[in-house]
UniProtKB/TrEMBL annotation:
This is DUF1697 domain-containing protein. It holds the Pfam family DUF1697. It comes from Streptomyces globisporus. SUPFAM superfamilies: SP0830-like.
Length: 182
């Protein structure tokens, strides 16, 4: 039985570096034997089906294939449809009442220990807020990510050292849930 997944590529097609054209990404995924392949936007979102049940195995294979194809490393997170839907459903902020640019999910490769963020004075960033979820971090930034001081603070090395992380705005989060729905 096949499972539907989303591959979330980190740091591609930004500022002219690490260019990964979406048609080539689809070709790389097809070369790995995946089916039902589709991409969303240019920022590294791909949906596919696979018989493999281990998302970490899929991510490692995709990272290797991308390195071989493009000649540079690309961190990838692979998450199944059920996980993506659960993250959306567990959102601690009123997503339906917010603009997509105000709410973000940062997907990470492992559970986040709240101790990583213990030194952060959350009240100093209000009305911006963050909450930890299941291998993700939710960020409410009412003025958008580009103006978020909290996003900058959360991205400091002491908070993200050793973690593979990639963020998506709520519009993309919702679209990935829709695209992976069987």
């Amino acid at each position: 039985m096949t499972t539907t997944y989303a591959a979330l590529l980190r740091g591609i097609n930004v500022g002219g570096s690490k260019r990964v054209p979406m048609p080539e990404l689809r070709d790389v995924l097809a070369g790995l034997g995946h089916t039902g392949i589709a991409t969303h936007l240019q920022s590294g979102n791909a949906v596919f089906r696979s018989d493999e049940k281990d998302a970490d195995v899929l991510a490692a294979a995709l990272e290797q294939a991308l390195r071989e194809h493009f000649g540079f490393a690309v961190d990838c997170l692979v998450r199944d449809a059920a996980y993506l839907a659960a993250v959306a459903d567990a959102c601690p902020f009123p997503a339906a009442e917010l603009e997509g640019k105000q709410l973000h999910v940062t997907y990470v490769d492992r559970p986040l220990d709240p101790e990583r963020f213990a030194d952060l004075d959350a009240e100093a960033f209000l009305p911006e807020e963050f909450r930890l979820g299941d291998r993700c971090l939710y960020l409410y930034a009412p003025d958008g990510l580009g103006r978020s001081k909290l996003a900058v603070a959360l991205g400091r090395p002491r908070h993200v050292k050793g973690i593979v992380a990639t963020s998506r705005n709520w519009n993309t989060v919702a679209k990935l849930v829709e695209l992976t729905r069987d």
